[in-house]
Every structure is written in C-alpha cells, then in structure tokens.
Amino acid sequence: MRRRRWLAGLTGITIILGVIIFYPFPSLLEWQSPFLKRAFFILIFSATFALWRILRGPTASDRAVALDILGILIVGFCAILGISTGRDWYIDIGIAWALQSFISILALGKYLEGKRFDE
Prior knowledge:
Layout: H1 2-22, H2 34-56, H3 60-85, H4 89-113
Helix pairs in contact: 2-3, 3-4
C-alpha cells in the first residue's frame, strides 16, 4: 500500500511538472522569456509542497527543514522577479530574506534541541 501511494504521488508530480514545462499556464505578468515563466510556476508548485510539509510534517525536524526550503524558494521568487523586471531591489529583498531565514532556522534548531539561546 505504501509503495502504491509513493508511486502514485511520484506519477502525479511528474505529470504536473511535465504540464508546467511543456504547456505553461497563462500569467498576468509579462515575462521576458518562457524559461522564467516556467521557473516561476515550478517554484509555486514546490512552495505548495513545502507548505504541505510544514502543515503535515510528522516531526518538528521535518517542519524545520520545510520552513528552510520555503525560505530558499522565496529567495528564488525574488531572483526571478528581479531578472524579469530589471529592478535590483528584488535581489536586495532576497538577500535580506536569506539572512533572516538562516538566523531563524538556527534559533529554531537550538530551541528544538532544548538548549538556551545563550549556550
């Protein structure tokens, strides 16, 4: 049963990524290239799985890893928006978000270990 669920999930993910890559959805944003448009939708697809793992994670460690992945995906969103619009401040927001995400994951890791923040 577990292998069938795993195989069904893998098949579903492959089909959805294939649709995004070969038949991209229409978007309200004007994109410079179809590659950026497809990358944006793949990031959205990945973010939904990260949010799902944050909500349904069996352990706190899984939720922390999913939260870190979501921070990386947000940096990716900022990079794609910075490239497509030509504005540098999206990259600045992405760098600040990466720093904040790194520090918060370190603090969450110390909290989950049961240590105090000054140790």
